[in-house]
Amino acid sequence: MRKTLVSISLAAALMSGQAMADDATLQALQNAGIKLSTELADKVKAAEGEDLAEAIAAVVSALGDDAAAVQATVQAAAQAAPAQAAAIAAAAVKAAPAQAESIKTAAMTAAPAQSAQIESSVATAVAAATQTTTTNTNTNTTTKETTTVATGSIPSSSGGSGGGVSE
Asked: Where is region (Disordered) located (predicted)?
């Protein structure tokens, strides 16, 4: 009975901790001045674990080319959920690959203890984005041309002097 109570208490604490972390992330974004639609705010608030990175990527995508807002978003989210900083940075880079360097800097500033993981995850995300772009631009550029030559009517020289000069 005692083990059951401890297990239930631990599970409840972990679940409420995650819920508070997502509330903290939403609050951090709002405190950073990031204007979120109700849909995006709900998505961030409802995100659990790895889903938080995808929710932040949705926010980054909605911000478009606003580099300052993207950087503030990543920094606020990584600061509120430092254990997810590498995943947040990678997802943000996938949403805005042109801003990869500023995203990496923002995440590393917010969660310096995660710098190595952030560096690695951003590099992987950039490589994936570059590979996808290259693949998409080269999709229909291969042209195959076939030439057929009939060899049955071409005479061959199988004898004689071979057209040499006679003396």
From this structure: 135-167
Q: What is the DSSP letter of 98?
A: G
| Residue 122 belongs to a domain | yes
Split at pLDDT 50, 70, 90, the class of 155 is low
- Domain membership flag for residue 144: no
Match 């606020």 to its residue by tokens. Answer: 76
Asked whether residue 105 is assigned to any structural domain, the reply reads yes
pTM above 0.85, yes or no: no
Domain that holds residue 114: 12-137
Q: Residue 94 is inside which H or E element, if any? A: helix 85-95
CB 132 within 8 A of CB 97: no
Q: What is the mean pLDDT of the chain?
A: 79
CA 113, CA 42: separation in Å to the nearest integer? 29
